[in-house]
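queue> pop job 88
queue> type: inverse folding (structure -> sequence)
queue> payload:
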């Protein structure tokens, strides 16, 4: 795999120490751990291994990955492994893509209440889809969904939303048959918006009553129940965004989509254009524009770039990929088997190992042939964190990246 010319790690290594010093006491332990992991990723700090070519004797050094879920270099292999497990869940039906977005005022208070509000976003969106789908006026069926949380906009701003992948149909409420959605229509967007708004705001009110929300700075006054209700009042009248995209053409497209979205981080290394001691330039997508002008370049101070990146560090243990309804982990295997039986099929529509057309180029680790002669590389040493390899018999070549 070709090493990206610029990396988020380069920015953290160059500007991270001064950023930590200037913001001492204002960074969470999670944010500090993410910075350290990205800085150390695929360096001698994490150890690695040495391989030698059987034929020409070439020596290769491969440093270990940090495997942090916020690291741009460590997600492709994780995405591939996750996708392989999802192949067994696919059904031979159309799939729909629905996006639920939090309005700006709630996104503002979500930053200091990530676990509570992001969890409420997941549950309100899942309940909305399940409730409307179960209504006999609409689909009258129990549906399943895979949901992925993204907290960023293209410019690294805080923009929490969930992407939902929903099979085009579900099992009838009495379990007797499969009910298919119309080819280009899943559920009415206005009804989804209205219910999602109500459920989300009700969950926020309940969380506040339970003392689960924290407020600081300009929002400190919202700790008062009356002030919080006044804060939410405009949200009841505001327009909420629930976007139902065109359905996927088939299960292959679903996997291709998931391969791009499930393990995405706030910014990919490939979007970085220029980095120096003070500025970072990167590409972003301006959704207010159409055509080629939509793709633009933004330059930020290095400290501002790091600040925006760290906005999207998730709380420890928080699951950003979740499954609900028919696809809930507790009963997914049984529900998929029943759905296939009702559809009259037995096998997944995509065979194991079949590659989705737009899946990431990086795959799970495979033996790498010698760059000089194509011969087989043999592992000759594993070295620990912070240590240097000891088994070189000739001058080493430049270290290569590893996804281990």
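queue> result:
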């Amino acid at each position: 795999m070709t090493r990206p010319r610029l990396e988020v790690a380069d920015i953290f290594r160059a500007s991270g120490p001064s950023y930590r010093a200037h913001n001492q006491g204002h960074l969470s332990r999670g944010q500090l751990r993410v910075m350290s992991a990205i800085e150390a990723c695929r360096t001698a700090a994490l150890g690695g291994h040495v391989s030698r070519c059987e034929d020409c004797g070439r020596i290769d050094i491969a440093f270990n990955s940090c495997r942090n879920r916020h690291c741009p270099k460590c997600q492709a292999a994780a995405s591939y492994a996750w996708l392989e497990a999802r192949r067994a869940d696919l059904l031979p039906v159309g799939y729909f893509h629905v996006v639920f977005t939090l309005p700006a005022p709630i996104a503002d208070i979500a930053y200091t209440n990530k676990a509570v509000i992001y969890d409420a976003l997941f549950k309100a969106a899942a309940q909305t889809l399940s409730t409307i789908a179960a209504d006999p006026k609409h689909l009258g069926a129990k549906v399943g969904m895979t949901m992925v949380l993204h907290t960023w906009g293209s410019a690294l701003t805080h923009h929490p939303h969930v992407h939902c992948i929903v099979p085009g149909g579900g099992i009838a409420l009495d379990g007797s048959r499969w009910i298919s959605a119309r080819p280009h229509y899943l559920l009415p967007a206005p009804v989804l918006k209205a219910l999602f708004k109500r459920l989300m705001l009700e969950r926020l009110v309940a969380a506040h009553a339970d003392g689960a929300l924290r407020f600081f700075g300009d929002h400190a006054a919202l700790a008062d129940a009356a002030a919080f209700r006044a804060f939410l009042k405009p949200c009841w009248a505001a327009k909420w965004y629930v976007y139902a995209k065109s359905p996927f053409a088939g299960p292959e497209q679903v996997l291709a989509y998931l391969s791009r979205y499930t393990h995405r981080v706030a910014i990919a290394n490939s979007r970085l254009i220029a980095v120096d001691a003070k500025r970072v330039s990167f590409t972003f997508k301006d959704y207010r524009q159409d055509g080629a002008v939509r793709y633009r370049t933004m330059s930020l101070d290095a400290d501002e770039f790091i600040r925006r990146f760290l906005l999207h560090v998730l709380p420890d243990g928080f699951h950003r990929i979740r499954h609900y309804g028919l696809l809930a982990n507790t009963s997914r295997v049984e529900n998929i088997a029943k759905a296939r039986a009702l559809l009259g099929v037995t096998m997944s529509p995509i065979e194991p190992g079949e590659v989705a057309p737009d899946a990431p180029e990086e795959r799970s680790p495979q033996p790498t042939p010698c760059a000089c002669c194509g011969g087989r590389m043999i592992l000759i040493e594993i070295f620990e964190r912070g240590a240097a390899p000891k088994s070189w018999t000739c001058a080493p070549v430049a270290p290569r990246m590893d996804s281990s």
